[in-house]
User: Fold this.
Amino acid sequence: MRELIFRNFDSIFSVFVCLWVLGVAYTIFRLIRKFYSRMTIESALSTLGSNLTNEGAEEFSRFVEGATIYNHPEIYHKLRAGWGMVRGSRNISRRAKDDVKNALLRRGVNI
Assistant:
């Protein structure tokens, strides 16, 4: 009887360890994805800042539509800053500004 209890304990313990390892791996994976997403947004904003033209605005609009945007205030603040650059530029046409605005609104960024 005692061996049966210890054998069950070993199997339960091994299942617990496996679930814990999977949980830690999943957490690390999510952190890496969030970091990558943040870096790509910063890169896109840097590119937009150096290229404030219609082409740059359209490229930023395409980036916003295809990017993974996490629900975090810092991410939304950066995207709003990108909109501020586009909105304040005199080199960008009204149509390109509307495209960026609509892309941000579709992704849930309050402008």
Remarks:
- Helices lie at 2-50, 54-66, 73-88, 94-106.
